[in-house]
Amino acid sequence: MKIKITITLIIAALSAISFISIGNHAFAQNLGTEQSMSAQNSANVQSTPSQNLGTEQSIPYVVQNTSRSIQDPLPGHQGHQIVIAAPPRSDGKVYSGIATFTSSIPVEVVVLHNYTPSNSTSSATNQSIGEPLNAPFGNGKVAISLMKKFTDSPINAGSFVFAGNALAFHNLEGKPFIVTYTIDGNIDSLTK
User: What CA–CA distance (Å, rounded) separates 30 from 64?
Assistant: First the structure.
């Protein structure tokens, strides 16, 4: 009788652990069901990284979602459509990983990077050689990596490795679209 009770308790404990794991996985999958909620929820989720001999560990960022585009909120880009898959980070950390997508029309992939030109060179040098594509964002600027073509196939799909402060799917023509995507990545602190 004692063995049967112990086995029952072990099974109950394992079921609870499975339920918690499944619940967290479901949360990650449903994180962006509403575009505005995706950015809001992900920005508000605070994770405490594991510690290993005083070094910070990566925080997993795994998302699978289907979203409808909205008007791009970036100043000067309001005529574009966007789906924010990994919301902008302002905590000094970056996303890195692999993303795969398929969309209803051709889209571009946008990766945003915190942009501080004063740290790189003098403004006189920047004027003589130019600057990367950038836009005002919050109290500063972001550099924009805009990537357009992922396949020669007539299907609007692709897979790519990325790293930056935000990841989005975008349409320069302003046409609304639907995109399904999976991101398997991490959130990491900068080393420099």
Answer: 7
